[in-house]
Specification:
It contains 17 helices and 5 strands. The chain has about 425 residues and is mainly alpha-helical.
Length: about 425
């Protein structure tokens, strides 16, 4: 009886242990699954944020492996080469942890503590929150490692001096995560965060001084450093300010590259194609809300008709002949264009901006809106540099900048020659 009773107790004890073990195993499995789901969610979110920041755009050379770096950025201070940010241990960031990555984005310092050059826009990325930075890092860690040792920077002297870079940072770098403006809406704050932080729009749309520092933080436009493109003011109604546009029109331009007012081209078309078209409707709308709030109102004072010297009229008349021969069939006799196909030139701000650089380059190299989900088969303009001489290009750009009520400066053959360079 005693043995029988003992065997029964032992059997019950074993049953309890097995049940408890099963429950513990189930809990552990559920916990592991929850952790895996959490990791997968963070990686997915990081992929979206990396797209919003267009990280691939700079860290991928033409025809190269995504995020493996190697793209060369020419600046007045030398040539910078983007690094490999795949998780390869030897040539990438495989030995980095999330703290190292945060240090690079937020403080502008490499893993070894060296100051990074602001060709990497940490001056804007410092506004990125820690959770967003960690998510981006988790995504980069999930990528397949790519073994690719990229060449070093070629920085001109004396700019290759860390002490000089320290002085630059003291003057031009303001570290700090974005702080929401409680007097503004959630949409406005989200748009501000994306434009000023992850989107780093300041990097192009802000004028720079001879040291490469921002002259202001108003995105008032300027030549993109190291390129032959002009990033228009996002404030001025004479350039790319959108205070008078509807939110829907702004959002459409950001997400598709084209609307009834404008067409993106050059580097901005690349940003739309690689980055903006993939953002959520809420994020695009938030950016539109923020950008609309920046713009100044157009001066409604009528412009006085200009009295042109005879020599100027003759010069513009030569441009009209070029226009009628090469441009009129698409853009119209009065520069009216074709809605949704060929942009109008009459009243087109990209034509009449203070800088004629983008208009010249559009004639030289052609104009190509981005192919996007909202505009999958865009119409483009072929390049004309192969069969129109520089004097004729200067004449036709001068004509379209001053015809149909447009008001712009004249363009010389020297301006055309100085506008040549790599496409991006």
């Amino acid at each position: 009886m005693r043995n029988s009773s003992g065997a029964g107790l032992m059997s019950k004890w074993l049953i309890i242990v097995c049940v408890a073990g099963g429950l513990l195993s189930s809990v552990q499995t559920a916990s592991a699954q929850a952790l895996a789901d959490s990791d997968a969610e963070q990686i997915q979110r990081g992929e979206y944020l990396a797209r919003a920041g267009n990280c691939m755009g700079c860290h991928t050379t033409r025809g190269g492996e995504p995020y493996a770096g190697g793209r060369k950025l020419d600046t007045p201070f030398g040539q910078f080469v983007t690094p490999n940010i795949t998780p390869d241990n030897e040539t990438g960031i495989g030995r980095w942890n999330s703290e190292d990555f945060w240090q690079a984005l937020h403080y502008g310092k490499s893993k070894d503590g060296r100051y990074l050059y602001p060709a990497f826009p940490y001056t804007e990325y410092t506004k990125v929150t820690r959770p967003d930075a960690d998510a981006i890092f988790a995504y980069l860690r999930s990528l397949p490692p790519v073994v690719q040792a990229n060449p070093p920077h070629k920085i001109n002297s004396p700019y290759d001096n860390q002490a000089l870079l320290f002085l630059w940072r003291t003057r031009y770098f303001n570290e700090g995560v974005y702080q929401p403006d409680k007097s503004k809406s959630d949409e406005w704050n989200r748009g501000n965060y994306l434009v000023q932080g992850l989107g780093h729009c300041n990097a192009c749309h802000t004028p720079r001084n001879v040291w490469g520092g921002s002259r202001d933080d108003k995105m008032s436009g300027g030549k993109i450093m190291g390129t032959y493109w002009y990033a228009p003011s996002l404030v001025s109604p004479l350039e790319a300010g959108v205070s008078e546009w509807s939110i829907e029109d702004i959002a459409k331009l950001l997400s598709t590259g084209i609307n009834g007012h404008a067409v993106t081209s050059g580097p901005m078309a690349t940003i739309v194609r690689q980055s903006l078209q993939y953002l959520s409707d809420y994020d695009i709308r938030s950016m539109a809300v923020y950008l609309q709030s920046l713009g100044e109102k157009r001066d409604s004072t009528p412009r006085k008709a200009r009295t042109m010297p005879e020599q100027v009229r003759q010069y513009i008349a030569l441009g009209q002949e070029v226009y009628e021969k090469h441009c009129q069939d698409c853009h119209g006799k009065s520069g009216e264009g074709v809605p949704g196909i060929y942009p109008p030139l009459a009243g087109n701000r990209s034509v009449t901006m203070i800088s004629p650089l983008n208009a010249i380059r559009s004639v030289l190299y052609g104009g190509y809106p981005p192919a996007t989900a909202g505009n999958p088969r865009p119409y483009g303009m072929p390049p004309y540099q192969h069969f129109i001489r520089d004097p004729e290009i200067a004449q036709v750009v001068s004509y379209i900048r001053n015809a149909w009520g447009n008001y712009g400066s004249l363009v010389s053959p020297e301006d055309v020659d100085n506008s040549r360079g790599s496409e991006f």
